[in-house]
């Protein structure tokens, strides 16, 4: 009986050790998958190889960012975006071939979830409105890329739009320059007062967390409101919310 009892005890201890090792192994696997899941996949598009190399070094020095591809033309960008399925595409406008603006439009039309962030030397006054109309999620000037690019990428990756403080005024001027078109139905009538507040704050460039603090609701609730707004208005990208808010006069030029 003593020998049988000792054997049973050893078997029990061995089973507990196996369970512990299995638990540790499972936890390690889950942690590895989580680390992999939070890695942001980035596609760099610029016709200057030296600039791409500099941007790659800058981005990969940041935790959770990985450059998965590089392209030197708009055509290459479209091909790589379809194949690599990046989270964010950092796009130059002036390139050989179809150029960055048309490439932005075609990548947005793929509807694969990639956010296009334009990085260029051109002034906002000339290109901000066309970029948003093409489906872009933001605009960063190359002169300030070392200071603002990381923040801009993180902003558009979470589904928000990256805009400079004077962007609302520039966009308003752009829409007014195109002339006003009357509508027989006011789409805002489809939205509740709270949905209009979320729409306006989104168009001004605030993140879900920032909107939540302003309205005393959680970021997840803000995202829920945004989804309802987009469904009611027939919109598919958050950059379209900015254009809609401007068209409806929800933003005021300061």
Total count of helical runs of at least 4 residues: 11
Largest sheet: 5 strands, parallel
> Regarding CATH, which class of the largest domain?
Alpha Beta
- Report the end-to-end length measured between terminal Cα atoms: 90 Å
Structural class: alpha/beta
Question: How do the helices and strands follow one another from N- to C-terminus?
Answer: HEHEHEHEHEHHHHHH
Helix share, percent? 55-70%
CATH T-level topology of the largest domain: Rossmann fold
Shape: globular
Domains counted in the coordinates: how many? Answer: 2
Number of DSSP E strands: 5
CATH-level-2 architecture of the largest domain: 3-Layer(aba) Sandwich
Strand order, main sheet: write it out.
2-1-3-4-5
Estimated share of beta-strand residues:
5-15%
Provide structural commentary:
The chain has 254 residues and is of the alpha/beta class. The chain folds into two domains: 38-164, Rossmann fold, CATH 3.40.50.2300; 172-247, Orthogonal Bundle (Arc Repressor Mutant, subunit A). It contains eleven helices and five strands, in the order H-E-H-E-H-E-H-E-H-E-H-H-H-H-H-H. It has helices at 2-37, 49-60, 74-84, 99-110, 124-133, 145-157, 167-178, 193-203, 208-215, 219-233, 238-247; strands at 40-45, 65-71, 88-91, 115-120, 138-141. It has a five-stranded parallel beta sheet, sandwiched between helices. Helix 5 (124-133) packs across helix 7 and helix 8 (193-203) packs across helix 10 (219-233). The longest helix is centred in the N-terminal third of the chain and has 36 residues, at 2-37. It is globular. The model is unreliable at 27-37 (pLDDT under 50).
